[in-house]
Structure of SRPBCC family protein:
Amino acid sequence: MTLDVGTAGGARLEGGQDPWTLVFIRELRQPPPVVWAALTDPAELDQWAPFSAARDLGATGATTLTMVDGDEKLDLPAEVRVVEPPSVLEYSWGADLLRWELEPAGRGTRLTLRHTLVEPSDHASVATGWHVCVVVLQHLLDGDPHGVVRGQAAKEHGFDELRADYAKLLMQPS
């Protein structure tokens, strides 16, 4: 089943040179504690995130996040640095830094991801990847799991078209 990924939006760049930070914001229908579980529980992460986690991310300390693309797997060291349930989760992912901020928004959650990329990267592809992941996350949280979409499999769900839209949206870092 093809995933309806919607349209590009809710993203901006901060910083003009490396490292730069992608700020990605979404409104989710579930309250922060429910979203928090999806961000920290390895079984839930494995259903929507671009990686699998070796352990629960709800405690500080070292772990491994494994990038998965079909049969290819790449273990990356990670360090969970900040855990303030259900509001702030921050951890390294290889050289990058992910900071998830959850705020109540009515009955749901305003999710803000700040992904700081140390290595030069294609910001439009990074935004598109997170966009697809969060669409899959919302399906999971709604009780209608789609199944994880990672790596090259995203091309089957409109990745290239969505990436072109993000490239236009993110042309000028703020």
Notes: Strands lie at 11-14, 20-28, 51-53, 61-69, 72-84, 88-93, 96-105, 108-117. Residues 11-169 form a domain with the Alpha-D-Glucose-1,6-Bisphosphate; Chain A, domain 4 fold (CATH 3.30.530.20). The first strand starts at residue 11 and ends at 14. Residues 50 and 150 are 6 Å apart (CA to CA).
